[in-house]
Specification:
The chain is an alpha/beta fold. The protein folds into 2 domains: 81 residues; 130 residues, Pectate Lyase C-like (3 Solenoid), CATH 2.160.20. The protein has 6 helices and 18 strands. The protein has a 6-stranded mixed sheet with strand order 5-8-11-14-17-18, with helices on one face. Strands 7-10-13-15-16 form a 5-stranded mixed sheet, with no helix packed on it. β3, α3 and β4 form a beta-alpha-beta unit. Keywords: Cell cycle, Cell division, Septation. Belongs to the MinC family. Interacts with MinD and FtsZ.
Length: 223
Amino acid sequence: MQAVLLKGNQNGYQLVLNQSASFEDIMIELEALFEKLKSDPISIEASKVSFDVLTEDRILQSEEKKQIEDLTANYPKFSIHKISANVMTVADAYFLKERENVHLISRTIRNGQEIQLKGDILFLGTIHEGGKLITTGNIFSIGNVAGILHAGFPNSEEKLILGDLHNAQQVRVGEQFDVIDDEKLEEDVQTIAYVNDLHVLTYGSLNELKQINPKLYNRIGGH
């Protein structure tokens, strides 16, 4: 079983840590990979190589993240851009629901149908194109969304939408909205749609939640 997989993408390189491997095996393979890359011609030519680390469904402890960062620091040309996980799993979603007053919606919303609620929503269902899910609070989606999501209705711009939004027809936060085209967003359960300081709807990732919305980050215990 391979504990560490190196992938290339349009933004550089990604290190995928096998969630089934022991952390000890991950560290051993990671060091071996760095040693190999250190003598790689492409790596030698580059002034700096940055890695995104994906831990799949494993949530690393602070000390484990520090060990990875400390190991990387031994290689001056390498750096860690970010360490992230697919943490918005069903188990994590139910954890959030237990801690907060969150509406759980697992139904199908079809074309022409509209569901409107007050408060935060954990969405596990399906929204067809032309269907709408609207709430005054935040939306945490781990469902299949091809329709419209509207958080912060009607004009609360401090709310956000979290989930895989790449197939959504449209996302709205408060009075700001964005029509999603085929190339705008990647398939990623960690995408956050939010309104920035310039009152423009934009996108970030789950590991940026502390900077995007410190209040929500603290509410869920930095989870």
